[in-house]
Specification:
The protein folds into two domains: 2-230 and 334-428, Rhopdopsin 7-helix transmembrane proteins, CATH 1.20.1070; 238-314, no CATH class. Helix content is 76%, strand content 1%. Mean pLDDT is 74; it is low at 233-289. The chain has 14 helices and two strands.
Length: 430
């Protein structure tokens, strides 16, 4: 009987040891993942900031918003993520009530700043694509800095002020915090604050930016169709008549291709008068004659082209100037379209990361204990939202070639000790 109980006791101890081992492994893996997300978020957002600071090509007004957004994501990584990770790893809060309020305030403030920046970016794209002639008037350095300052200052009134004054939560939660000694830092809100904060932080700005982006998308598609028509040379009546009268065509790159060019007679004896450089070198004399003959033929062809365009009433320079203007407009539109696509992907990623959290945040506040959600799910929703701060720089590198080249240049400066001086100069000139 004693042997049987002893064996059962050993099995129980082995089971407990195995459970403890599995828990410690999962705990260590969880800590590793959280630390990796924080480090990548800090490093990648620093890359965005230094890319715009170091490379002239990225110093546009639209990238001012991206730098400010990167600062907000950097604050999320350094404070919100870090403090949350310490509680997740240690399973308790170790910093006291003041730091708990600071963490919750930074969390609300940074998420609101990110949303307002995306709203500002959507209006920037609106003026750049829908009203390009008014862009310089509305979106200059002063207006951009004003919008950025407002995006940072306004969220203070729904984050730091109500949280430090205790307006955000219920009396029961404040009493519970006093009794437990703040061993766990939970963000429990009352219904009015939940409605006001979620509306101003997420729902209203998201609705505004979605409507603006839809308007910009429709206008961008219209402009794309118009640009495709403009790049077709046959849409230009004057150029078409001129080219047809000459029997050739002008390509989309602005070059003139002649299909039925008239033969140009050039007398080679006019080139025989060119003296040789050494007085008796026949090879050099023949080479000089050949070069002179080719130059005379090219000059005759140019005169023939100008005479045909003159006879048709059109100057070839006018055709080329029109084509050059078309290429410039097309290139400008493509740059704006790239920025629109990049920031559209950023906005879509923001929605996917934060929408589940705000749905949970609003429903649990309204339902209370009736809508119970496990702590593991709540933690997962928080970190999915935090992960958005890590994804933004990755999106820039994947969708914007200029940012990608800037990232590569900075990484080479940091990690490539054997890089040649030429590659460093090339990255400096970017």
């Amino acid at each position: 009987m004693l042997v049987k109980n002893f064996s059962e006791g050993n099995e129980t101890l082995n089971f407990l040891d195995e459970e403890a081992y599995n828990f410690s492994v999962l705990h260590a893996l969880k800590a590793l993942v959280l630390i990796l997300i924080i480090v990548v978020a800090i490093f990648s957002n620093l890359l965005v900031i230094f890319s715009v600071v170091l490379y002239r090509k990225l110093r546009g007004i639209n990238n001012y918003f991206l730098v400010s957004l990167a600062f907000a994501d950097l604050i999320v990584a350094c404070f919100a993520m870090t403090l949350n990770a310490t509680q997740e790893i240690s399973s308790r809060w170790i910093f006291g009530p003041a730091v708990c309020n600071l963490w919750n305030s930074i969390d609300v403030h940074a998420s609101t700043v990110s949303t307002l920046h995306l709203c500002a970016i959507s209006f920037d794209r609106f003026y750049a694509i829908v009203k390009p002639f008014d862009y310089d008037h509305f979106m200059n350095t002063y207006s951009a800095m004003g919008m950025i300052a407002a995006a940072w200052m306004c969220p203070v009134f729904i984050s730091f002020v109500p949280i430090f004054l205790g307006w955000y939560t219920t009396k029961e939660h404040l009493k519970e915090r006093e009794e437990t000694g703040d061993k766990i830092c939970n963000f429990v809100t009352n219904v009015p604050y939940a409605f006001i904060s979620s509306t101003l932080t997420f729902w209203f700005p998201v609705i505004v930016m979605v409507l603006v982006y839809y308007r910009v998308y429709r206008e961008a598609m219209k402009q794309k169709t118009a640009m495709e028509k403009m790049t077709n040379i046959r849409a230009l009546p004057v150029a078409k008549n001129s080219v047809n009268s000459f029997g050739g065509e002008v390509s989309q790159t602005g070059t003139l291709n002649l299909n039925n060019e008239k033969e140009v007679q050039v007398r080679p004896d006019k080139c025989d008068s060119i003296p040789s450089t050494n007085g008796g070198d026949d090879a050099k004399s023949k080479s000089a004659k050949r070069i002179s003959l080719e130059a005379a033929m090219l000059d005759a062809r140019a005169k023939a082209r100008n005479s045909v365009f003159a006879s048709s009433g059109t100057n070839i320079l006018e055709v080329f100037s029109v084509l050059k203007e078309r290429r410039r407009l097309n290139s400008s539109w493509r740059r704006e379209h790239k920025a629109f696509v990049t920031l559209g992907v950023v906005m879509g990623t923001f929605l996917l990361c934060w929408l589940p959290f705000f749905i949970w945040y609003l429903t649990t506040t309204i339902c209370g204990e009736a809508c119970y959600c496990p702590d593991e799910v709540v933690s997962l929703l928080f970190w999915i939202g935090y992960f958005n701060s890590t994804l933004n720089p990755v999106i820039y590198a994947m969708t914007n070639r200029d940012f990608k080249l800037a990232f590569i240049g900075i990484l080479k400066r940091i990690f490539c000790c054997q890089c040649t001086e030429e590659s460093r100069r090339n990255s400096d000139n970017f």
